[in-house]
Amino acid sequence: MSTHNIQVPLPCSPELWEAPTEAAWENIRKSHTEQPFFHSTIKNLVQDGDKFQSLPMDNLSLTLLLHGIMSMCNDISHFDNRSIYLSDIDQGEEPWRPWRRRMAHALETWKAHYDAYIMGLSQCMGDGRAPRSNQKQETAAILALYHTAHIVIKCEIRHLQATAGAKAIFGHIVMPEDRQVSEEWVRDWVCIQTTAADHAAWHAAQMLREGILNLRNWEVSGVFHYPWCLFIGTLTCWAFHHFGGEMTDGQDICSHLDETDMDQTQSRVLMNHMVSLMGSVSPTQIRRTLKKCCTHGITVEVARYLRSVRWTAAFEAMKLLMGLSQHHTKPNGVGHV
Questions:
Q1: What per-residue confidence (pLDDT) applies to 189?
Q2: Strand, helix or coil at 173?
Q3: Alpha-carbon gap, residue 284 to 194, rounded angstroms
Q4: Spatial CA neighbour of 299 closest among 260, 255, 330
Q5: What distance in Å separates the CA atoms of residue 73 and residue 101, rounded to the nearest whole number?
Q6: Where is the Xylanolytic transcriptional activator regulatory domain (predicted)?
């Protein structure tokens, strides 16, 4: 469903929803303004970031709006409905289209509002309110979705999957000629459309960094989208280093055995090294990390996590990452780093 068809207000405030009595509810309602409509808020977010920033938001409203932005991006990308949302702002067919820039800016505006909300929440905890036990997990999960949205705007995920060796994508069999087209697309994306690839790789690294620092073994209390976000982030890092390394002088630093002989200590060291390098630089400087880190650690670790997720898509993603973990092999005709 397109966002312009959702003509309902945003959820009421937690205080109003959790009012203990009818009288308390009535008193709270009198002091609260009516919630803005979902579609108009999305429109303000995309077209007038300053107006959006002035609106009071809670976690549920911000989560719904993030999903709304992602839905809008999908609608524009797959059904070419720019005119519905953005008055057809594209001029020509530039590699980095104006609508993608605008949606990226909308995501950044959303992130600023979300950060302000989390800061306020932390300050309330400092005033004596008890923190929610799963606050870090909730934050890591929603920010993973945010980073994935940036990656989706800047890349074609199906090409990443096909290039990495996926045999089928959402029920569609990947033929050898499809894989070749995807590999050429990803190579051009990394080597020619460098701005998009650099920003996507940076967001992937930030997602992984936040998960490593704030979660225990990627545990987010069963949030269903998180495993898929991790998978997309891992594929993005792999593609960035695999194809980016082709245009960079220097030798590959990989000197370890196949993933079948890699213990968890080694895979975590490799993962942490890659994520810390990529996460500590700006998007414009992220190519400095090429040929300086190895992607085997992250593919092994995320595959190990996906093995524990009871979901068919996660199982298929796990098998794909295990294939990428093989050192100096070329399954499905695709070389891996």
A1: 94
A2: strand
A3: 9
A4: 260
A5: 11
A6: 1-111
The neighbouring-strand residues paired with 169 are 172
10: closest CA among 68, 50, 51?
Answer: 68
**In the numeric block, which tokens belong to residue 27?**
């008193």
Residues 6+ apart with CB under 8 A from 140: 210, 211, 214, 215, 220, 226
Q: What is the dihedral of CA 296, 140, 277, 285, to 10 degrees?
A: 120
Q: Which helix (H) or strand (E) covers residue 172, if one does?
A: strand 172-173
pLDDT tens for each residue of 50-67: 777 777 788 999 999 999
Q: What is the largest CA-CA distance in the chain?
A: 71
Give the DSSP letter of residue 293.
S
State the Cα–Cα distance between residues 165 and 312, nearest whole angstrom. 17
Contact 85, 72 (CB under 8 A): yes
Q: Show the tokens assigned to 261.
A: 């002989």
Rounded to whole angstroms, how far apart are CA atoms 230 and 329?
Answer: 23
Structure tokens at 89: 């702002």
Q: Smallest Cα–Cα separation from 68: which of 56, 52, 54, 50? A: 52
How far is the C-alpha of 111 from the C-alpha of 104, rounded, in Å?
Answer: 11
What pLDDT does residue 141 have? 94
Listed in sequence order, the residues at least 6 apart from 201 whose beta carbon sits closer than 8 Å to its beta carbon are 236, 237, 240, 278, 283, 286
Q: Mean pLDDT throughout 267-279?
A: 95
Q: Residue 85 has which token pair? A: 């949302």
Under DSSP, the state recorded for 204 is: H
Cα gap 94→193, rounded to integer Å: 10
Q: Assign 238 a pLDDT band (cuts: 50, 70, 90).
A: very high
Mean pLDDT, range 226-255, rounded to an integer = 85
- pTM for this model (two decimals): 0.87
Structure tokens of 4?
A: 């312009």
Both tokens assigned to 141: 């999960």
H or E segment and range at residue 169: strand 168-169
Three-point CA angle 266, 271, 272, nearest 5°: 100
